[in-house]
Design brief:
By secondary structure, this protein is mainly α. Helices cover 71% and strands 1% of the residues. The protein is built from 14 helices and 2 strands. Strand 1 and strand 2 form a beta hairpin. It is globular.
């Protein structure tokens, strides 16, 4: 049997490869455009979780309120801080931490938990990542009700120019002002980063099923190393305002601290630093580059791994 020699009338078949950056970018673009799909799926997740419950999703708000009130009262006494300024500090920190934590831990299980849909629904992988981020955003919105209540109670303390989070030698804070609106772009930037976290960790965890357990262990350590229940002023006050190398890097080398600070600082009238935004911007570029690399190389394999 003779081999067919390609001629002008017989085009040479082109090699097909799924490992192209354009396919990864197109998957992400289509995922963002299918808002109705991931929006509906995310809302259904909330309804399903609190199905037949008397107060429904308000359990999210109630749970956050109880946690913030209990820990706020306890740690304000341990650190000797005024409850009027420390409770809002802790509340906002917990709210944004829960969102970030959800993107990390639930993001690792995103494609595994969506196994049935991935195998039967011809949709971009980004849809399932956005489903997770949208569900966490809805929970975040419920938790903001706790902040609104705390703000209404302690507004005079937060609006005082020069209030101290950790007296007597803490850093004077400017108090609430118009800069509170910067919390809106801060959250969108956090959610945008949450999407690449879900995509990247979701792909890795689908291939290596031990990764979610590793992430769960590390996040517990990160919680205590991140200034959420303890103010940074406690360190500066303890070391006389002159942080050594390890104390400085304990704070600044923690990327979660910068994400929390760009959102928390304007909501509690705290002193803001633009270096937090710069760090978050750099992490955004690096993170999305890694997510695109993972999507380019392994997007087509996820359906076989789940």
């Amino acid at each position: 049997m003779q081999a067919t020699i390609p001629t002008e009338e017989t085009p040479v078949p082109q090699a097909h490869t799924g490992r192209t950056l354009s396919r990864a970018i197109e998957d992400i673009r289509q995922g963002f455009t299918q808002r109705e799909l991931w929006g509906h799926l995310g809302w259904q997740d909330i309804k399903q979780r609190y199905r037949r419950s008397v107060i429904g999703p308000l359990w999210i708000t109630l749970s956050m309120a109880v946690t913030a009130a209990g820990l706020g009262l306890l740690y304000s006494q341990l650190f000797g801080t005024p409850i009027g300024t420390f409770l809002p500090y802790l509340t906002v920190g917990f709210i944004v931490w829960n969102f970030i934590l959800g993107c990390i831990t639930e993001g690792a299980d995103t494609f595994i938990s969506n196994e049935g849909l991935i195998k039967h629904l011809p949709a971009p992988l980004t849809v399932y990542a956005l489903r997770t981020v949208w569900r966490l955003t809805l929970m975040f919105a419920h938790n903001l009700l706790v902040y609104a209540i705390v703000l209404a109670i302690f507004f005079p303390a937060l609006a005082t120019d020069g209030y101290l989070l950790v007296p007597p030698n803490g850093v004077p804070q400017p108090g609430l002002d118009w800069s509170i609106i910067t919390a809106v772009p801060a959250f969108f930037l956090i959610a945008f980063n949450g999407t690449w976290v879900v995509l990247l960790f979701g792909i890795i965890s689908t291939r290596y099923r031990d990764i979610p357990q590793v992430i769960g262990a590390l996040t517990q350590l990160l919680f205590f190393m991140t200034p959420i229940v303890w103010p940074v002023d406690t360190l500066t006050q303890k070391f006389g305002g002159n942080l050594g190398a390890w104390q400085f890097w304990l704070i600044e080398a923690n990327p979660l601290y910068h994400f929390i600070q760009i959102f928390r600082a304007p909501l509690i009238g705290s002193q803001q630093s633009w270096h937090h935004w710069i760090v978050v911007g750099c992490i955004t570029v690096v993170g999305w580059s890694l997510a695109l690399l993972a999507m380019r190389n392994y997007r087509a394999r996820v359906s076989y791994w789940v």
